[in-house]
Amino acid sequence: MKTKIAGIGKYLPKRVVTNQELTTYMDTTNEWIIERTGIEERRYAEKHKETPTTMAAAAARIAIERAGITPEDIDFIIFATLSPDYYFPGCGVLLQRELGLTKTEIGALDIRNQCTGFVYGMSVADQFIKTGMYKNILLVGSEMHSMGLDFSDEGRAVTVIFGDGAGAVVLQPTDKENQGILNTVLHSDGTHAEELAMINPGSHGGYHLGPEKFGYPDPSIPGGVFVTQKMVDDNMLTPNMTGQLVFKNAVVKFPEVIKEGLAKAGLEKEDIDLLVPHQANLRISQFVQKVMGLPDEKVVNNIQKYGNTTAASIPIALCEAYEDGRIKEGDLVCLAAFGSGFTWGSVLVRW
Ligand code: UT7
Question: What is the pTM of this model?
Fold first, then answer.
């Protein structure tokens, strides 16, 4: 028994935010953003009306319909996001509620692997399907970065990259010989955990980086303090990224993990019909394409329109390729991601 993608959907919020618009908030230019990242515009969700959960639900409804099932058929939810509605509980149960799923005989799992979240989710779902535990798994990646970005000049290197959106798949068992997930490969290395991170608010209490930086808690409080005044005053509640370090690691790890998956399956890079890389930066994807020797028609790039949507970028790009008729039955599709953690991984699937 293997795992197939039975249905796929995506949701992009309506509001288009151009590079030009960003220049009105911070010291940046359209030329800089295009030259360094390839991004021309991104989408922002509607504040107070949309959340990662509502966007995920919109994408999920399409995936469920395309799978030919009803929401009540879902027996397990996996939700990958780094920008959840709440610190806890996770978005899995919120999505269950949002979709109106009343039965409680299902599980809801939250994945915190950032850009690699969807790939990790595919791997987890694949194991559950192969063991026969679940038959209709809903896996979503959804992000609302626009709520947590720093729109001052200080945040420009991070803020210009990210966008909002959601993608979803329904995964089911298949016994067809030429169909389904061939393998998934997962990696992690916590050495550079803080180089692409949103550290605050959190329970670290200064442990990893020294408490001075974050502000001492009031000694009259018996526990720690999740958010200190210093964090607020010193603008420490937004994501940070050492861009060049991430870039340098990404261009090595992407090809490595793709080749690792191919080798495990006894396949060559020429066997890939479509590569769907996490949309981190167009320059990274172009570099990976070159190293892998793939022609343009075999690589999906849509970061130009949506920016980097982290856990949502692979299912959005995969869905767009599917809707554009770029995937046919039996095609070998490769998904690959690298990001915060660092974590990276790949999935090889026969459509
Ligand atoms: O999906 C998660 C994984 N994330 C990634 O894969 C991101 C990987 N990294 C990158 O994509 C790139 O490193 C960035 C796009 C983030 C930055 O590009 P870069 O070519 O590495 O630029 P840099 O950080 O080295 O900065 C170069 C210059 C600096 O100015 P000086 O010091 O040379 O005067 C920055 O201050 O560009 C400046 N800069 C900007 N200028 C205009 C940084 N951000 C901006 C901006 N607009 N938005």
Answer: 0.97
